[in-house]
Design a protein that fits this description.
The chain is an all-alpha fold. It is about 80% helix and about 0% strand. This is Arsenite transporter.
Length: about 400
C-alpha cells in the first residue's frame, strides 16, 4: 500500500493534486515575471494592441491619411515612419556601452555568438522563409515575392526594442545588429536576385547596393550617431551617475513613444488595404507567423542547449539567458523597413509585393511581443547557470 493510500487518497485524487500544483506553479512563475516588469513594460502589451486597432480603424475610415503620409518620402519609405523608427532606436543605442566594445570584441564569447548569428540570419532564416512562402502561397506569386523580400531583410530596428523588454544583453545585441547590417549591404542584392529571379523564376527584380546602403544608413546610422553623441555629451555636461540614474530613466520612455507612434502609422497606412484584401492578407499572415515563431524558438532552444552543455570549466558563462534572448530576437526579427522600401521601389506602392512586405511588421509586432513574455517566463522556469565571474564581467548597469 502506498503512502497516499495509507492517508486515504485515491489515485485520481493524487493526479488531480499534482495537476493543480503544476498549474499553481505556472501561475506563480507568471506572476513573478509580471512583478519584475516596470509599469511602463506592464502597460506595453495593452497599449500596442489598442494602437494597432486604432490604426486600422483610422486607416479604413480616413483613407486620405495614406496620401498625407506619402507627401514626403525618403528612399521609398514615408518620412513619418522613418521618424518613428529613428526615435524608437535612439534611446536604446544611447544605452550601449561603447567604451567596452573593444574589451567585448577581444573575447572568444563574442566571436562564437557572431558566428551563430551569421548562420541563423544568412543561411537558416532565408531558406526557412523561402520554404514557408512556397508551401503556403503556391498560387499567389506576387504576395510570395513580398514575403521572401521580408525574409531576406535581416534584423535592424525593433530587435533592440524586444531585446530590451526581454532583458537581453544590450551590448551584444548592438554588436550583432551592426555586423548583420554591414552584411546586409553586401548580401541583400545578390540574395534577392538568387531567391526570386533564379530559384523563383518569376519576377524580374533588380536591387542596387546603394539602395540597401541608404536604408541601413537611415535606420541604423542616424540613431547610432545620435546615441553616441547623446551618451557622451550628457556625461560630459553632467556626470556618469546623473546620466545613468536621472537621464536614462526619463530618456528611455522615448523608445516606447517611438514604438507606439510607428505602429500606429504603419497600421493606419495600410488599414484600408488590409480590410480590402482580407483573403490574401490572411494567407500572407500564415508563413510570417510560422517564420517568426520557428526562428525565435530555434535560436532560443539552441542557446539553452549550449548553456546546459557548455556551462562548465572554460566554457562557463559563454551562453546563458541574456544571450539566448539576443540570438532569438536577432534571428526572429527582420528589417521590414528595407523590405518595404525595396518592394515599393521595384514594384510600386500599390503592388501586391509592397502590401505583403508591409504585412511583415504588422505580424512581427504582436508575435514578437508575445515572445518577449515567453522569454521572461522561461527565464523563471528554466535553469540558467552562469558563473558569478562571467556575470560580473558582462553585467550591464541598470538605469
Amino acid at each position: 500500500m502506498s503512502s497516499d493510500e495509507k492517508h486515504g487518497l485515491s489515485e485520481q485524487e493524487v493526479k488531480t493534486g499534482n495537476a493543480t500544483a503544476q498549474v499553481q506553479g505556472r501561475v506563480s512563475a507568471t506572476r513573478a515575471v509580471f512583478r519584475q516588469l516596470s509599469i511602463q513594460d506592464r502597460l506595453l502589451s495593452p497599449l500596442i494592441i489598442i494602437v494597432m486597432v486604432v490604426g486600422v480603424v483610422v486607416g479604413e475610415y480616413h483613407q486620405n491619411i495614406q496620401h498625407a503620409f506619402e507627401t514626403v518620402r525618403f528612399n521609398g519609405v514615408s518620412v513619418p515612419i522613418a521618424i518613428g523608427l529613428i526615435v524608437m532606436m535612439w534611446p536604446i543605442l544611447t544605452k550601449v556601452q561603447y567604451e567596452r566594445l573593444l574589451q567585448i570584441f577581444s573575447s572568444s564569447r563574442t566571436w562564437i555568438h557572431i558566428t551563430i548569428s551569421l548562420g541563423l540570419n544568412w543561411i537558416v532564416g532565408p531558406l526557412i522563409m523561402l520554404a514557408l512562402a512556397w508551401a503556403t502561397l503556391p498560387d499567389l506569386p506576387t504576395y510570395r515575392t513580398g514575403v521572401i523580400l521580408v525574409g531576406l531583410a535581416r534584423c535592424i530596428a525593433m530587435v533592440m526594442m524586444w531585446n530590451q523588454i526581454a532583458k537581453g544583453d544590450n551590448n551584444y545585441c548592438a554588436i550583432l545588429v551592426v555586423v548583420n547590417s554591414i552584411l546586409q549591404i553586401i548580401l541583400y542584392s545578390p540574395y534577392a536576385l538568387l531567391f526570386i529571379n533564379v530559384i523563383g523564376r518569376q519576377d524580374s527584380i533588380h536591387v542596387e547596393y546603394g539602395q540597401v546602403a541608404i536604408s541601413v544608413l537611415i535606420y541604423l546610422g542616424i540613431p547610432l550617431a545620435a546615441g553616441v553623441v547623446t551618451r557622451y555629451g550628457v556625461q560630459a555636461a553632467t556626470s556618469e551617475k546623473f546620466f545613468r540614474q536621472r537621464f536614462l530613466p526619463v530618456f528611455s520612455s522615448l523608445s516606447l513613444l517611438g514604438l507606439l507612434y510607428t505602429i500606429f502609422v504603419m497600421f493606419a497606412y495600410q488599414g484600408h488595404h488590409i480590410v480590402q484584401n482580407l483573403g490574401p492578407v490572411f494567407r500572407v499572415i500564415v508563413p510570417l507567423v510560422l517564420y517568426f515563431t520557428i526562428m525565435w524558438t530555434s535560436a532560443f532552444a539552441l542557446i539553452y542547449y549550449l548553456t546546459k552543455k557548455k556551462n562548465r570549466g572554460e566554457e562557463e558563462g559563454k551562453f546563458g539567458y541574456e544571450m539566448a534572448v539576443v540570438q532569438a530576437f536577432t534571428a526572429g526579427s527582420n528589417n521590414f523597413e528595407l523590405a518595404i522600401a525595396v518592394a515599393i521601389a521595384v514594384f510600386g506602392v500599390d503592388s501586391d509585393q509592397a502590401l505583403a512586405a508591409t504585412i511583415g511588421p504588422l505580424v512581427e509586432v504582436p508575435v514578437l511581443l508575445v515572445l518577449t513574455w515567453v522569454a521572461l517566463f522561461l527565464k523563471e522556469k528554466l535553469e540558467w547557470v552562469v558563473s558569478s565571474r562571467t556575470a560580473e564581467v558582462h553585467e550591464i548597469p541598470q538605469a
